[in-house]
Amino acid sequence: MPEVIVLFDGYSTKLPNGSMDANCTCTLIKSTKLIIVDTMTAWDREKIVQALAQYNIKPENIDYVVCTHSHADHIGNNNLFTNATHIVGLSVQQNTIFYEEPQILNEGYELCPDVKVIATPGHTAEDVTVLVKSTKEKMLFAVTGDLFEKEDDILEPSIWKALGTPELLKTQSVMRSRVINLADFIIPGHGPMFRVSHAMREIVKNQIIE
Ligand SMILES: [Zn+2]
């Protein structure tokens, strides 16, 4: 049942003055629950509403909002989805009730059959990845947030290293290898979806920081 639809491909470009022009990938998962992963910047409200409307979905129909981490370009429109449970990193929030979900750190927190949230720290201490087993393609999709910035960061690891939390580089290198070994497709935080190859898995394994 689960179907993965990338509503917007993320991107990131370094500007001459040293700041970044960036927006995150925004992904819709259609299953027995409706799930949106990462809600872009606060200036993208109308874009998201219109993109969902193409699938006959209204913001109030969304059951779960998952933010892979709490940076401003990944949480900008969470308040469009007031009927949803919000998972931001390791915390789960519904209305004013807020708790940490231990399953995210352990076996994974199942949102519905074949969709779960796992902890993949590194870019920040609280990153999560959404794993989706698609029945149609029989493939595993990993919506990774900035664990993978974009496909290019496999051959150019300086890209993710420059943006990650310095004390967590080793953790991120391990998590990257773990996720790329599981996934058939990766939907990175700031680039288009890409298919995982055996060669990529080897490269990422060799980048594990001891
Ligand atoms: Zn980001």
From TrEMBL:
GO biological process assignments: RNA 3'-end processing
InterPro entries in the cross-refs: MBLAC1 (IPR039344), Metallo-B-lactamas (IPR001279), RibonucZ/Hydroxyglut_hydro (IPR036866)
SMART domains: Lactamase_B
Domain Metallo-beta-lactamase: 23-190
Reaction equations catalysed: a ribonucleotidyl-ribonucleotide-RNA + H2O = a 3'-end ribonucleotide-RNA + a 5'-end 5'-phospho-ribonucleoside-RNA + H(+)
Top-level taxon of the source organism: Eukaryota
Residues spanning the membrane: none
Any Pfam family: Lactamase_B
GO CC term (a single one): cytosol
Subcellular location: Cytoplasm, Cytosol
Function of the molecule: Endoribonuclease that catalyzes the hydrolysis of histone-coding pre-mRNA 3'-end. Involved in histone pre-mRNA processing during the S-phase of the cell cycle, which is required for entering/progressing through S-phase. Cleaves histone pre-mRNA at a major and a minor cleavage site after the 5'-ACCCA-3' and the 5'-ACCCACA-3' sequence, respectively, and located downstream of the stem-loop. May require the presence of the HDE element located at the histone pre-RNA 3'-end to avoid non-specific cleavage.
Protein name: Metallo-beta-lactamase domain-containing protein 1
Organism field: Camponotus floridanus (Florida carpenter ant)
